[in-house]
Amino acid sequence: MLFIGVAFPAASWPAAFGWLVVLPIIAAVWVFRVRTVVSFDGLAIRRLLGSEFVAWEDVRGIHFPNRRWARVVLTDKSEKSLPLVRFDRLPVLAAASGGRITDPYAAAAEADRTAEEERTADADREAEPGASSS
Q1: For the chain, is the Cβ count within 10 Å smaller at the N or the C terminus?
Q2: Are 65 and 71 in contact (CB under 8 A)?
Q3: Do 20 and 9 form a contact (C-beta atoms < 8 A)?
Q4: Taking a C-beta distance cutoff of 8 angstroms, is the pair 77, 64 a contact?
């Protein structure tokens, strides 16, 4: 669709709009190339130009600055961006990391479940016959 949108101006005036044909090609390469792959060994980071691998031993933590892609903090206190990893993908990232990254959603759900079990146990103890009421 993007290619068709830029093909007509490029064909009608190639000297001025010929460069527009490059935009859909760059967009397609970006879609197929850019990603973050989480494995047992570490994080494989692929960008439009270049790739790198970060071993789990080098990871100190992850943070999410101002609604942008996640950034991995390394043991030398440098940071690297993790393409396409946003805060809403944190549960998937935590599961794929094998527990190396904690999932705050799961921790909150576990705390809620534990609190509910304690409330239920307290209510059951109070409802037992022979329980003293003071």
Answers
A1: C
A2: yes
A3: yes
A4: no
